Amino acid sequence: MAPPIVYYDYIIIGGGTSGCALAATLTRAANVLLLERGDLPYGNPDITNLRGFVASLSNTSPSSPSQLFVSTDGVINHRPRVLGGGSALNAGFYTRASIAYVNRVGWDQKLVNESYEWVENKVAFEPPMMQWQSAVKDGLVEAGVLPYNGFTYDHVPGTKWGGTIFDKGGHRHTAADLLEYADPTRIVVYLNATVNHILFKLQGQSRPRAYGVLFRDAKGNKHIAYLNRGSSSEIILSAGALGSPQLLMLSGVGPSEQLKAHNIGEVLDQPMVGQGMADNPMNALVIPSSRPVEVSLIEVVGITPFGSFVEAASDSVEAFISDALTAPKVFLDQRIPEAIAKVLNAFTNSTIFPVGIILEKIMGPLSSGHLELQTNDPNDNPKVTFNYFQDPQDLQRCVQGMETIIKVIESEPLSKFRYPLVPVQDLINLMLILPVNFRPRHVEATYSLEQFCIDTVMTIWHYHGGCQVGKVIDQDYRVLGVDALRVIDGSTFYDSPGANPQATVMMLGRYMGQKILAERFTDGKN
Fold first, then answer.
1. What was the pLDDT predicted at 350?
2. Can you list the disulfide-bonded cysteine pairs (predicted)?
3. Catalytic center residues
4. What is the pTM of this model?
């Protein structure tokens, strides 16, 4: 149990994908407190085993490692509540950002590569690439997503199979594993520790200075963590794209009207906090398989020239498709086509329903929205709007991605998995009756891929923004207008790096930890 008052050189809020890497790195030369609102990922089979992926996201209990939220767009989403953050819940794909992305952001390529390697030595593996994933890989090549690049962590155009954080035994390795790098004498991790707000000194300062945080333990007891004296001591927000802007606002740093609406004392009117919220839209087709498929998450990606990434997963799941038969029908005047109805009826008499999923997400995206507080309780979700497909280029990329998926489904390598009497149109119609979101369905979605994208959009959990560089933080990730406070996580991104951001978010924690230590040594504050 945490003492009522503690002192540290660095206080990191959020033991997630970035926070764990950052905390481990800073212990090389400083005493670090890591505050995580969730519990351990270890010992929970829904987290540690590949087969538990769906179960962990379906758990809606108050102590679940996955906290459900629904954006105002009507898209179902989740935010992590567990040590290791999103790396404890996601589909495991590990792939780096492109060199162009690194150059555009202004990072040091050499230090970036070293930081990626530091992460990879603990948590990245080569996937097994079994029958379904191999067929999709070959289908992408036949569909013209070229060249074929084999196995690589690098973001390169064409078709490749990337890394995974699941080892050969199907066991997940999360960002929490990076804490094994930490000096155990210099770090304390408090779990189930929810930060209420950051404390600022206002009197006698040229501008507000962060000096501590107020947090509560699982029993609701209050604790205060203070920074040790010294110019190098800092509080670092690594609470994610929802948590970091939310906590800034709860601490009095945000849009003035938001603060007033919730009776929060204003520390700094910062209208850009919570702006630029974006989520890469995902659309997919589910393919009932005529033969068994392996349980697989994301292993293969087709990186297209038009800005869509095509990926795949597979499983043998009970009630996955048959549940759709009892879901509210969105087309009252349209019956499920006879051929696919026969397949579904066959499934209802079986204990195993083999399905493959081929999905596409778009790069960027160009569309963005905003985040607002709903309550003053840090346990509550903020109100989030992503404005999916607001920019027409995002929609065009989705259409091209879906066209590529259709080519893959109709390719020779996929033919051995398909029911011969089930055309792609029936798969489109099937997707339109699955309860994948809370958005309305339109009849034209059966023949318009534009409308299909809009109606069936889902998340792939790559949302970002809210504390962007140049708007809320500077190039060194310091919060503009206040001292001794940084934000280091995915909330700082303008667009999602590569085909999956988790490798880069972990890298960023290590990268900025190294940068901060270099400053500390330069200042002589060892």
1. 53
2. 398-453
3. 462
4. 0.94
